[in-house]
Design brief:
Blueprint (H helix, E strand, L loop, with lengths): L1 H13 L14 E3 L5 E3 L1 H65 L33 E10 L6 E9 L7 E10 L9 E3 L4 E2 L2 E2 L6 E5 L2 E8 L10 E7 L5 E8 H4 L1
Length: about 260
């Protein structure tokens, strides 16, 4: 009997169930208004994705900021040099125009390098050995504008003078521009370069701005006048040859040109 009891005890001991290990796992449970529970594990995935996107955006923003700072430091010296160069060009242009005005007043003949009409190698392909000739109706005026210099307040008159002749010859002369407020009151007309008028036409042809072109050149007049550009409604352009003959005249409606 004793042996049977021991055997039964051993069997009961061996058949005793092993303890179950519980695995703890965090879960998101959503309870609706009716008390029904639903799994919200998808929210964890959404939060993880948003966290990764936020981190990538932060790293990209930091990288762009670093690159922008470096580029700004590299561009600033170049910007400073550009501003200084523009100021130097502006000062040299004004000085050149003052010298040209003195030459005209003194009755001297300004050369190509001394004229205040600007040119570039692409625009001007002149041959210095060719004798200058003027042919009637071989000139035209384009891109006329009257603006104000934002720095000095001076009036700026710009236009292109073009040789429209079919012959490859030089065209030269002396040019005047008259700005008019839209009436016949000559006291309100602005003559550039300054000259007396006769029948509404400049009478001192030697005071005109000298030019010599083969193709075309941009012309710029700087006027020490603080009138508003909108005050002027019309413009007349006159060109004389060296024999004081009027070889070109054109009237421009400034309001249409704008």
């Amino acid at each position: 009997m004793e042996d049977i009891s021991r055997e039964m005890e051993r069997e009961i001991t061996s058949s005793k169930p092993k303890p179950i290990k519980l695995v703890r796992k965090k879960r998101v449970i959503i309870i609706d208004d009716f008390g029904v529970m639903k799994s919200g594990d998808y929210l964890k995935i959404l939060v993880t994705i948003l966290s990764i996107i936020s981190m990538v955006c932060f790293i990209a923003a930091a990288l762009f900021y670093y690159l922008y700072t470096g580029l700004s430091k590299a561009v600033k010296p170049a910007e400073t040099r550009l501003v200084l160069a523009e100021k130097k060009v502006y000062d040299l242009t004004r000085e050149k125009e003052i010298l040209m005005a003195r030459l005209v007043i003194e009755g001297k003949e300004p050369g190509i390098e001394g004229e205040s009409i600007e040119s570039s190698p692409e625009m001007e392909s002149s041959n210095e050995t060719m004798p200058p000739r003027v042919i009637k109706k071989n000139i035209d005026i384009e891109k006329f504008s009257v603006t104000k210099d934002k720095t000095t307040g001076d009036l700026l008159v710009r236009f292109d003078i073009r040789n429209i002749s079919t012959e490859q010859v030089h065209v030269s002369g002396r040019i005047f521009t008259i700005l008019k407020p839209g009436n016949n009151n000559e006291d309100q007309w602005l003559v550039v370069p300054a000259s007396s008028l006769k029948n509404g036409i400049p009478s001192e042809y030697k005071k005109g701005q000298y030019f010599l072109i083969t193709n075309f050149k941009p012309v710029k007049f700087i006027i020490k006048n603080h009138a508003d550009p909108d005050f002027f409604k019309q413009a007349s352009i006159f060109i004389f040859n060296e024999q004081a003959d009027l070889i070109f005249e054109k009237r421009i409606d400034i309001t249409e040109a704008k």
